[in-house]
Amino acid sequence: MTAGILKGGNEMEAKKMLVAFAACAALCAAATPALEKVVFVGGHPDDFAAQIGLALLMRGTFEVHVVDFTHGERGCGKEKFESGWTKAKRTKEEESVCAAVGAKLHWLDEVDGDAYACRETCAKFAEILKELQPRAIITHWPLDQHLDHVMAFTATMKAIHLAKIEPEIYLDILLRSLKFLRFSDIIPIIKSSLCKFHNRKLQKIIKTEHNTLKFSIFEI
């Protein structure tokens, strides 16, 4: 239609129509509220794999983001780590997975098995969070046999503090993460008492709001 008007030489009418189209598009964009953001934080690319079902359920309701501290470089042995083969492969895999579920991927470029919650990494993560202003963050439970997971939790908490945001925080509990909490060498009565005490502590964490940060625990 616009092309026809231009053909006829009525450029003024064409410009008016283009302005009207632009105004209409702006109104439509304003009428569509932006989705709230949820951030999945993992130590390695395959950590998000355990959360894909939840990410798919969130699609269309929330804007999903994934933050990986490392590229999982040590997952296929020393030789492939040193050659860079594993990093390249797992980076590509994670990019493909995030594209498939509609998630936006962010890397913090720490090294698998040698990751630290250093000042630079926490500051970089804080800038991401400051830009995203997420409704919720899902990350590792802080008691974990894999120190990269413990680091990821610690760096997440520091980044939240640096970004001056107040998101809901959800912690995933992988059963293998709690192996060291088994009391197999303690007599049954003491074991029972300790387990009950531990469960009460978990319930207290679930119900407590500390420094305006909301904590919840879910099991996968």
What is the count of distinct domains?
2
Q: Please give the CATH architecture of the largest domain.
A: 3-Layer(aba) Sandwich
Residue stretches low in confidence (pLDDT < 50, at least 5 long) are 1-8, 175-187, 205-220
Query: Looking at the structure, what is the overall shape?
Result: globular
Strand content: 15-25%
* Assembly form of the protein: single chain
> How many DSSP H or I helices?
9
Any idea of the CATH topology of the largest domain?
A: Rossmann fold
The major beta sheet can be summarized as: 7 strands, mixed
What average pLDDT do the residues reach?
Answer: 78
User: Order of helices and strands, N to C?
Assistant: HHEHHEHHEHEHEHEE
CATH superfamily of the largest domain: LmbE-like
- How many β-strand stretches? 7
CA gyration radius, whole angstroms: 24 Å
Structural class: alpha/beta
Q: Enumerate the strands of the largest sheet in spatial order, edge to edge or round the barrel.
A: 3-2-1-4-5-7-6
Could you walk me through the main structural features you see in this protein, from its secondary elements to its overall organization?
It is a single chain. This protein is α/β, with parallel strands linked by helices and about 220 residues long. It folds into two domains: about 1-30; about 35-170, LmbE-like (Rossmann fold, 3-Layer(aba) Sandwich). The protein has nine helices and seven strands; from the N terminus they run ααβααβααβαβαβαββ. Helix 8 (about 145-165) links the parallel strand 4 (about 135-140) and strand 5 (about 170-175). The radius of gyration is 24 Å and the shape is globular. Mean pLDDT is about 80; it is low at about 1-10, about 175-185 and about 205-220.
